[in-house]
Amino acid sequence: MIGKLSGRLDHRAADHVLIDVGGVGYIVHVSERTLAALPGVGEAIALYTDLLVREDLLQLYGFLTLLEREWHRLLMSVQGIGAKASMAILGTLGAEGVGRAIALGDWAAIKAAPGVGPKIAQRVVNELKDKAPGVMALGGTVQATGPAPAAPAMVSAPVPGRVSSASAQAEALSALGNLGYGPSEAAQAVAQAAGEAPEAETPALIRAALKLLAPKG
């Protein structure tokens, strides 16, 4: 299994890139969102990867974060969701958006992805809603990949980076869990709070989520 590729960006296409790793070129399929975030041709690049293996096919899919890759794997576990649909959903919503949509039961957001119909979108939400809190919690332990500054290597540890809203959501989830809230209700509250204030840091997210969880009336 190839878990990560670090090398030089050789070519960009509509749905994939060619990465030169020590003189070997790897074709890696990526979402529109990931493609837009990549550097220019000739520059250093690093992507986490997932290998799709079929009888007549070997395809690599690339992701900027381990969180995004985990959502890709979970999405593909849903009947009717293949690699193309998974990449469309991630390209439309991003990893955090997928987690938020599933936690909130917002299947209409999933349906906004090209090629995803309402029945499939509802199935995604129904089948993954119990897994959403655990995946969202990964946001506090994984970081985005960075460019490879030295000799290319195929598998390596994540490159530390700045704290993202994903890690803030993960920390808020952990805090609510410590306060006794269940994973599902905590995930829903954090997802709603993050949707209303995307730039909020952990303390603000916790306060907002607690207000949402407070008894009404």
TrEMBL record:
GO molecular function annotation: ATP binding; four-way junction DNA binding; four-way junction helicase activity
Which GO biological process entries does UniProt record here?
Answer: DNA recombination; DNA repair
The Helix-hairpin-helix DNA-binding motif class domain is annotated at: 73-92, 108-127
Q: Where is this region: Domain III?
A: 166-217
Q: Where in the cell is it found?
A: Cytoplasm
Q: What is its main location?
A: cytoplasm
Q: Where is this region: Domain I?
A: 1-64
One cellular component term (GO) for this entry is:
cytoplasm
Its keywords, alphabetically, are: ATP-binding, Cytoplasm, DNA damage, DNA recombination, DNA repair, DNA-binding, Helicase, Hydrolase, Nucleotide-binding
Q: In its keyword annotation, does this UniProt entry include Chloroplast?
A: no
Q: Which InterPro entries match?
A: DNA_helicase_Holl-junc_RuvA_I (IPR013849), Hlx-hairpin-Hlx_DNA-bd_motif (IPR003583), NA-bd_OB-fold (IPR012340), RuvA (IPR000085), RuvA_2-like (IPR010994), RuvA_C (IPR011114), RuvA_C_sf (IPR036267)
Question: Which family is annotated?
Answer: Belongs to the RuvA family.
Let me see what the UniProt entry remarks about domains: Has three domains with a flexible linker between the domains II and III and assumes an 'L' shape. Domain III is highly mobile and contacts RuvB.
Q: How does it assemble?
A: Homotetramer. Forms an RuvA(8)-RuvB(12)-Holliday junction (HJ) complex. HJ DNA is sandwiched between 2 RuvA tetramers; dsDNA enters through RuvA and exits via RuvB. An RuvB hexamer assembles on each DNA strand where it exits the tetramer. Each RuvB hexamer is contacted by two RuvA subunits (via domain III) on 2 adjacent RuvB subunits; this complex drives branch migration. In the full resolvosome a probable DNA-RuvA(4)-RuvB(12)-RuvC(2) complex forms which resolves the HJ.
Give the HAMAP family listed for this entry. Answer: DNA_HJ_migration_RuvA
Q: What is this protein called?
A: Holliday junction branch migration complex subunit RuvA
Encoding gene per record? ruvA
